[in-house]
Write a structure and sequence with these properties.
By secondary structure, the protein is mainly alpha-helical. The protein has one domain. The chain is built from 3 helices and no strands. Helix 2 packs antiparallel against helix 3. Keywords: Membrane, Signal, Transmembrane, Transmembrane helix. InterPro entries: DUF4134 (IPR025408).
Length: 98
């Protein structure tokens, strides 16, 4: 009786694994398409954040320049560097993953 039960269990175990074949490739393809679909909106979002950071930096630098602060060039360089970093990082990430 136990041999029949073991045989039935073996047939049942192999039968369920046969139905699961082939779904892995489709799942990986779907995941890849979903991830690559997020890069274009994310890149545009990072560009928009860079524009806002640039505007805020411009106002900060102008206020320092108007008040006669001698540290204006360092502030301008740091804000400009932040904007350039955002733009370059978004472009490199997009080109690296797509």
């Amino acid at each position: 009786m136990s041999k029949k039960l073991l045989f039935l269990f073996a047939i049942l175990a192999t039968g369920t694994s046969l139905f699961a074949q082939g779904n892995g490739i489709q799942g990986i393809t779907d995941a890849t398409n979903m991830v690559t679909g997020y890069f274009d909106p994310a890149t545009k979002l990072i560009y928009a954040i860079g524009a806002v950071v640039g505007l805020i930096g411009g106002v900060k630098v102008y206020s320092k320049f108007s008040s006669g602060d001698p540290d204006t060039s360092k502030t301008a360089a740091s804000w400009f560097g932040a904007c350039i970093f955002l733009i370059v990082a978004a472009t490199i990430l997009r080109s690296f993953f797509l």
